[in-house]
Specification:
With 289 residues, this protein is mainly α. The chain contains six helices and no strands.
């Protein structure tokens, strides 16, 4: 009995040990693998979540990459279009530049022609103005010189041979000389508008020039007095000449002719001096162009 109890106790201890071993084996073979499986499942789930998240990010990135690639393609197409447009623009610019150079050359030609024409026009205008000025001076000088021919200014006695002798003498006594001759010359040009040869004075500035001359004439009126003095002329005459008792008729006539010659010389000198004053006045005129 004691032996049985001994073995029973030993079997009990062994069974407990065996149970412990079985429990350890069970734990090791079932519980631990299950726990590890659960851990693996949990880790797998976490990994799956991360994978899904990563896949979502990848999808987003792929979508973004696709958009970028699409944008890149569009950009490349636009760049290609721009490059083509730039090429066309350069060609057009080259054509325009060539046209501009041609236009510039033509413009330079036109400018040179214009300058040449302007120079020629200025030259012609100067020549025309010079010719017109000369014609005007000549006309004024001619009409001024001929204006006193009908008045007997420098030889009043000549008026005796005309029917209107008293009128001619009275007209001569009103005043002769440069001022009146120039005044009559201006009026003659205004009325006739012709030169000394009878040709028309086609001068656009004719009225302006006549006004300028008339104004100048009035300003210099006092310096344009005649050098002819009627009293001196009459004093040199032979009207009061008396024959001397011992003088022969031939000597008397010689003396009379000498007196008449001195009177004629005085008139001639006075006329020449007055004409020179007129010419000097005309030469010093400043006419606007």
């Amino acid at each position: 009995m004691n032996r049985f109890d001994l073995w029973l106790g030993r079997l009990t201890s062994l069974s407990q040990l065996f149970l412990v071993v079985i429990a350890i084996a069970t734990i090791k073979l079932t519980v631990i693998p299950l726990y590890q499986k659960e851990l693996s499942s949990e880790e797998l789930a976490r990994s799956q979540i991360k994978l899904n998240s990563v896949q979502s990010e990848i999808d987003k990135l792929q979508s973004a990459i696709a958009q970028k690639e699409k944008l890149l393609v569009e950009t490349e197409l636009r760049q290609s279009d721009l490059a083509e447009a730039e090429g066309l623009s350069r060609k057009r610019l080259f054509i325009v530049d060539a046209e501009l150079k041609n236009k510039e050359a033509e413009l330079q030609k036109l400018r040179k022609n214009q300058e040449r024409m302007l120079s020629e026009s200025t030259k012609v205008k100067r020549q025309l103005n010079s010719e017109n000025t000369l014609k005007f001076y000549q006309a004024l000088e001619w009409f001024s010189m001929t204006s006193d021919l009908g008045r007997d200014c420098y030889d009043p006695e000549v008026a005796e041979i005309f029917e209107n002798a008293e009128e001619r003498k009275a007209d001569a006594r009103k005043g002769c000389g440069p001022y009146r001759s120039l005044k009559d010359g201006i009026n003659s040009i205004r009325e006739r508008r012709r030169d000394s040869s009878g040709d028309p004075l086609n001068i656009s500035m004719l009225n302006v020039w006549l006004d300028v001359v008339e104004k100048e004439l009035e300003q210099k009126k006092t310096s344009l007095r005649s050098s002819f003095d009627l009293a001196v002329f009459e004093g040199l005459g032979s009207g009061n000449l008396v024959r001397k008792p011992d003088e022969t008729e031939e000597d008397f006539f010689k003396r009379k002719r000498a007196v008449e010659k001195s009177q004629s010389d005085y008139s001639s000198r006075a006329r020449s001096h007055d004409i020179e004053i007129q010419k000097d006045f005309i030469r010093n005129l400043k006419l606007p162009s």
